[in-house]
Amino acid sequence: MTNTDISGSQASRLFLLSCIALTVTAMTFGIRAGILGQLGVEFDLSNEQLGYVNLMAFWGFPLATMFGGVLYNAIGARALIWIAFACHLLGLVLTIYAQSFWGLMLSSLFIGFANGSVEAGCNPVIADLFKNNKTTMLNKFHVWFPGGIVIGALISWFMTNAGIGWQWQIAVMLLPTLLYGALLMGAVFPQPDKAILSTSSNFKHLLTPVYFFLVFCMTITATTELGTTQWIQKIMGENDVHPMIIMALIFGIMSVGRYFAGPLVHRFNPSGVLLCSAIISTVGLFLLSQLSGSMIYVATIIFALGVTYFWPTMIGCVAEYLPKTGALGMSLIGGAGMFAVGIWNPVIGGWVDAAEAKAIAQGATPEIVATVAGPAVLQNLMIFPLVLIVAYAGFFFYMKNRNNAIEPVTN
Fold first, then answer.
1. CA pair distance 279, 94, nearest whole angstrom
2. Rounded Cα distance, 220 and 224, in Å
3. How far apart are CA 307 and CA 337, in angstroms?
4. pLDDT digits (tens, 9 = 90+) for 152-204
5. 215-251 tens-digit pLDDT
6. Where does residue 53 rank: exposed (0-12), middle (13-18), buried (19+ CB within 10 A)?
7. What are the structural domains, with CATH classification, of the chain?
8. Is the separation of the CB atoms in 60 and 111 below 8 Å?
9. Integer Cα distance of 126 and 20 in angstroms
10. 60: nearest Cα among 105, 100, 96
11. How far, in Å, are 77, 81, 183, 277 from residue 9 at the CA level?
């Protein structure tokens, strides 16, 4: 099952290291979503300005992945993950000591770059470790993105309720960062296939209609998932349920779903999984915009099931269908997703501002502004998975009719 160039214990160590690094990446999303309101108050920032702070994290990610695939070929996974460690450490410390809007912007950029370096370094390592089971193992690796967000969201919720400031919430992430740094020392990495270590060859195989289509879809899938969850506190901040509990529920379901992704991928193949995910995500966002009280939990479960398989299955599509794009193909598509979320973050922040202003103009009290404004924002967000239904339906039938045009899924 694992690459024969390294021992089973070293393969397990690398997988654990990768999972912890991805957990740190995810915790930055969960905790930042939890402290967004505190940052707005302390630094006197509008929702649009908070969107720009988020944007720097999301743009740091694609900046890393744009160069990450090239760096992977040039310096290897070990050095790339060391860069991720250094940037995580620097970004977290700078955030803790930030004194202004621009300080938050700079620290968020470093954290985003670290997050992108983790993806650029670890995804191809997992693909090399599990050559005959790529999509399933990439889903198991990506368990720790939603898993880390659950951990981050719950930590933020407990610490906020205990009156502990946002700086200490950020400081918590230093512990797993130091842990994956310790595991990185002395780790033995697999030797990647030399045939796909040529950056020029990778670029050549990127220039296909299928890859461009997948990149386009990734920009929308990432925004459907992260564009919604990063603003959950603002969208549902005054509702009958705590937004951090909603976030924990979403990403808890995603963690379980991704861990058991294998049979689903075998049964429906990646294109079928993506189409079903788009449909279910649309239904979930619609219900979130219409329901209230305890029924929000039902809507949340449906939305979570919809977005569970988006990200790792998109990475898996590249690894399975376009293997000659190498680490570059996997890193660039992940970067495209985060880049798009970065672009949409200030826009979503603007939607929140406009919806809140309209609610206040209609006489809503401060206690119920989010309850009135949230559904309007959710209805705007529903546009993204609606587009995906059309796109993935076309992809599903294309793959069904042209199954010999691209190497079929083998895992």
1. 41
2. 6
3. 14
4. 888 988 898 898 989 999 999 999 999 999 999 988 887 766 666 678 888 88
5. 999 999 999 998 888 787 777 765 567 776 787 888 8
6. buried
7. 8-187+196-401 (1.20.1250.20)
8. yes
9. 13
10. 105
11. 18, 19, 12, 35
Which residue, chain included where needed, has tokens 């908070």?
A: 50
Query: CA–CA separation, 16 vs 255, rounded Å?
Result: 16
Angle between the N-to-C axes of helices 101-129 and 47-96, in degrees from 0 to 180, rounded to the nearest 10: 80
pLDDT number for residue 410: 40
In the chain, the largest separation of any two C-alpha atoms, in whole Å, equals: 67
Q: Which residue has the higher pLDDT, 320 or 278?
A: 278
Task: Please classify residue 324 by burial: count the beta carbons closer than 10 Å to its beta carbon, then call 0-12 exposed, 13-18 middle and 19+ buried.
Answer: middle
The whole-number pLDDT of residue 386 equals 97
292: closest CA among 348, 250, 249, 236? 236
Find the length of the chain: 411
Q: State how far the Cα of 95 lies from the Cα of 411, in Å rounded to an integer.
A: 42
| Residues 333/338/341/345 CA torsion (nearest 10 deg) | -160
Higher pLDDT, 109 or 229: 109
What's the CA gap between 274 and 278, in Å, rounded? 6
- The rounded distance, in Å, linking the Cα atoms of 104 and 101 is 5
Give this prediction's pTM: 0.77
User: What's the pLDDT score for residue 90?
Assistant: 96
Over range 87-105, report the average pLDDT: 92
Give pLDDT tens digits for 117-136: 998 899 888 888 887 777 77
